[in-house]
Design a protein that fits this description.
By secondary structure, the chain is mainly alpha-helical. It folds into 2 domains: 64 residues, Multidrug-efflux Transporter Regulator, Chain: A, Domain 2 (Orthogonal Bundle); 51 residues. The chain is built from 6 helices and 3 strands, in the order E-H-H-E-E-H-H-H-H. The protein has a 3-stranded antiparallel β-sheet with strand order 1-3-2. The longest helix is centred in the last third of the chain and has 34 residues. The termini are far apart. GO terms for molecular function: DNA binding; DNA-binding transcription factor activity. It comes from Marinobacter adhaerens (strain DSM 23420 / HP15).
Length: 137
């Protein structure tokens, strides 16, 4: 990193990206973020590229990608001249996982609605929901 380039301390980078310093250091430790250079006083210094990479990680996490998936996406993103087919495949895979989770959540929603409709308001001893969850029904 050239010293004339804007640098960020971990605190400033955390403020600007919305990612906690401990998480930034973790991403650095597991290799999602390159090792920061150190100032003469030992502070980590990050470049604009690190800021952009952290935003990429944060947005990817927001879409439900695992850290391993993000590592793969970052690796693909670093190969500027390659086909984006690998990225497309990774996004399609994530989309299928989201759709599967939505299907499961809808099934859960319907079961909870069914359980809720069983409630007659009495006392716990006569509670149909507790009875159903206990397997006694």
């Amino acid at each position: 990193m050239m010293m004339s380039e804007k640098t960020y301390t971990v605190g400033r980078l955390a403020d600007d990206t919305g990612i906690k310093p401990v998480t930034i250091r973790y991403y650095e430790r597991i290799g999602l973020l390159p090792k920061a250079i150190r100032s003469d006083s030992g502070y980590r210094l990050y470049a604009k590229a690190d800021y952009s990479r952290l935003l990429f990680i944060r947005r990817s996490r927001g879409l439900g990608f695992s850290l391993d998936d993000i590592r793969e996406l970052l690796s693909l993103a670093d190969r500027h001249q390659e086909s984006c087919a690998g990225v497309d495949a990774k996004v399609e895979q994530q989309l299928e996982q989201v759709r599967s989770r939505l299907k499961d959540l809808r099934a859960m929603e319907h079961e909870l609605e069914r359980l809720s409709a069983c409630c007659e308001g009495g006392v716990i001893m006569d509670c149909r929901i507790i009875e159903t969850l206990s397997g006694s029904a």
